[in-house]
Amino acid sequence: MSNSAKELFERRKRRVRWQIRMKGRGRPRLSVFRSNQHIYAQVIDDTRGHTMAAASTLDRALRAEGPARNTVDGAAAVGRLVAERAREAGVEQVVLDRGGYAYHGRVKALADAAREEGLKF
Questions:
Q1: Which residues make Cβ contacts (< 8 Å) with residue 85, sequence separation at least 6?
Q2: How does DSSP classify residue 22?
Q3: Strand order in 50-56's β-sheet?
Q4: DSSP reduced 3-state for 21
């Protein structure tokens, strides 16, 4: 019974989403997507199906700063930016949706920077 890496990733992602639905108590989720070159974050209100705030390393504000794309520093910058935009949209508390990714490296840097900027999770 060998599972491919993709199948294992999808299983972890489903498990995380299930836990968020059960323990999230209606709070918006901070969803993280990581590619080889960029990192993306969105604050999503699942009750309305609406994205309240979003940021990525492709944002003009971050591209002007420098070439930190797929680094821990780039992820931290995205975390600060998405937290700032979420607070402007009136969001104070979120639930972290790390998808199938381990809470390590870029995902951890993004989450820590968002916490420092004032998001609670």
A1: 43, 53, 54, 55
A2: H
A3: 50-56, 39-45, 29-34, 95-97
A4: helix
C-alpha span between 49 and 68 (Å, rounded): 31
Tokens of 81: 């930016």
Q: Please give the torsion angle defined by the CA atoms of residues 74, 93, 115 and 117, in that order, rounded to the nearest 10 degrees.
A: 80
pTM: 0.90
- Residues in a beta bridge with 42: 31, 54
Rounded CA separation 93/115 (Å): 10
Distance (Å, rounded) from C-alpha 9 to C-alpha 33?
13
pLDDT band at 80 (very low <50, low <70, confident <90, very high): very high
Report the top-level CATH class of 5-116: alpha beta
